[in-house]
């Protein structure tokens, strides 16, 4: 507790320093002499280094990295390159909530933006944050998948899981997602933010039509559960929302019994075993 208080005090002190630094900066700008196109003001203290320092003080289970961040400035489109100031590698939903709450509380003292990054397969710099914080969602994917195998089966999965891994796990139970993407090395959160279409969409609709419930970290850092009947605005905003309405940390995905025969390309060892068992019946 004492440690927490000390940490809070430290962060508070840093915020005061940021505010003073910004005030000084503004005053300097007001007083600067640009008559001859030359500023007589020496460089103001860098806000960003103070912000980095304060971010480092956050109490996280995972960690924030300020080095080796260039990969988060690239995506599949390879057309946009926005370098973040840090990458968050969350170990828990609380890590994401803590970081966003902290940035939200900074208010107008900071220009920091936040972007969730799934597998980085979007094209237009969508998962990038210029000098902001990129959240590496795949780092969350260590969380367990929880199954309900009753009449209307579903699986609760982390937003950072790849669909290919969800398929592997569901097949072990004789189930598959009802709607998926044709290419499966994409994250749950990434495709639910973009719709997610495949050959099954003609029958069941896109992936966003086959989600029962979401857990979302909102822009204020709150962790909110939403569905068709509960916080419906958030639910419908986040689905297909391009990451702008909150961060999907968990999704309840609709499942159906898997077919006994599937195309050869989808067969992996676990599925071979499963098929062999069913064919023997
Ligand atoms: C080779 C290839 C094959 C593809 N095949 C298909 C296909 O068959 N069907 C199809 O529908 N699409 C397909 N796409 C498009 C792809 O589904 C989308 O670009 C998808 O958004 C990429 O998912 P990702 O995990 O890489 O997300 P990213 O590219 O990392 O992120 C995409 C967007 O989602 C946001 N985001 C990521 N995670 C979260 C989260 N947890 N919560 C909130 N927002 C989040 C990001 O901020 C960003 O705005 C394909 C793309 C490629 C490159």
Automatic annotation (TrEMBL):
Keyword Transport: no
PANTHER family: CYTOKININ DEHYDROGENASE, GULONOLACTONE OXIDASE
Keywords associated with the record: FAD, Flavoprotein, Oxidoreductase
InterPro entries: FAD-bd_PCMH, FAD-bd_PCMH-like_sf, FAD-bd_PCMH_sub1, FAD-bd_PCMH_sub2, FAD-linked_Oxidoreductases_BP, Oxid_FAD_bind_N, Oxy_OxRdtase_FAD_BS
Organism classification: Eukaryota, Viridiplantae, Streptophyta, Embryophyta, Tracheophyta
Pfam families with a match to the protein in the record: FAD_binding_4 (PF01565)
Cofactor: FAD
Protein name: Oxidase
Family to which the UniProt record says this protein belongs: Belongs to the oxygen-dependent FAD-linked oxidoreductase family.
GO molecular function: FAD binding; oxidoreductase activity
Tagged with keyword Flavoprotein: yes
FAD-binding PCMH-type domain segment(s): 80-258
């Amino acid at each position: 507790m004492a440690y927490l208080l000390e940490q809070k005090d430290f962060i508070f002190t840093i915020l005061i320093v940021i505010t003073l630094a910004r005030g000084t900066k503004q005053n300097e700008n007001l007083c600067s002499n640009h008559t001859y196109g030359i500023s007589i003001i020496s460089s103001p203290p860098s806000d960003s280094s103070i912000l980095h320092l304060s971010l480092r003080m956050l109490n996280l289970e995972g960690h924030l990295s300020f080095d080796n961040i260039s990969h988060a400035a690239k995506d599949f489109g390879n057309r946009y390159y926005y370098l973040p100031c840090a990458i968050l590698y969350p170990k828990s939903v609380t890590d994401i909530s803590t970081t966003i709450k902290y940035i939200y509380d900074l208010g107008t003292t900071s220009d920091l933006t936040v972007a969730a990054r799934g597998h980085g397969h979007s094209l237009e710099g969508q998962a990038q944050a210029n000098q902001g914080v990129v959240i590496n969602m795949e780092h969350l994917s260590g969380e367990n998948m929880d199954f309900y195998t009753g009449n209307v089966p579903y699986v609760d999965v982390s937003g950072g899981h790849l669909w290919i891994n969800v398929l592997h796990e569901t097949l072990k139970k004789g189930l598959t997602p009802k709607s998926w993407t044709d290419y499966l090395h994409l994250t749950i959160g990434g495709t639910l933010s973009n719709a997610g279409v495949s050959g099954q969409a003609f029958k069941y609709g896109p992936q966003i039509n086959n989600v029962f419930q979401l857990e979302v970290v909102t822009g204020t850092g709150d962790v909110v559960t939403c569905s068709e009947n509960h916080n419906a605005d958030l639910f419908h905003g986040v689905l297909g929302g391009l990451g702008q309405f909150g961060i999907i940390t968990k999704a309840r995905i609709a499942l159906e019994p898997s077919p006994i025969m599937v195309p050869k390309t989808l067969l992996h060892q676990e599925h071979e075993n499963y098929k062999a068992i069913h064919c023997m019946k």
